[in-house]
Write a structure and sequence with these properties.
Layout (H helix, E strand, L loop, with lengths): L2 H58 L7 H13 L10 E6 L8 E7 L2 E7 L10
Antiparallel strand pairs: 1-2, 2-3
Length: 130
């Protein structure tokens, strides 16, 4: 082999190694982001399930059904008074849902750019009569 051939082959090997290292690095970054996203989604789901469980426990203690509007307001108050701590960066809110007067609430959990929603209908738990 001549010196020129050795130099060209070493440049080709160096470029191939550099390209492979960059590809491997970007795959690792993507994998790390995907794992972080899954972890956050799990935290959001857990926060929603904890809030929904607290609402169901509170609903079990109500003996007389109320109007659906009052039940939605009561549910909102119960949600804001829920004692379970939230993971860092996770917020939970409630907003009225368009359910033809049934007084349902969307319970929303947010963290970074992710969002999970669950519909809580007081009528489904015997809190009101539509």
């Amino acid at each position: 082999m001549t010196l020129v051939e050795v130099m060209v082959s070493s440049v080709v090997v160096a470029l191939a190694a550099n390209g492979s290292a960059q590809l491997w690095g970007s795959a690792m970054v993507w994998n790390h982001r995907a794992e972080r996203r899954q972890e956050l989604l799990g935290q959001l789901d857990l926060a929603l399930l904890q809030r929904e469980r607290a609402l169901r426990v509170s609903a079990a203690g109500v003996t007389a059904p109320m109007s659906c509007g009052a039940a939605a307001a009561w549910t909102g108050l119960q949600l804001s008074a829920a004692p379970a701590p939230l993971p860092e960066g996770v917020t939970v809110s409630a907003e009225a849902a368009e359910t033809e007067g049934a007084g349902a609430l969307w319970i929303t959990a947010r963290a970074e750019d992710l969002e999970r929603k669950r519909l809580f209908a007081p009528a489904a738990h015997g809190l009101c009569r539509p």
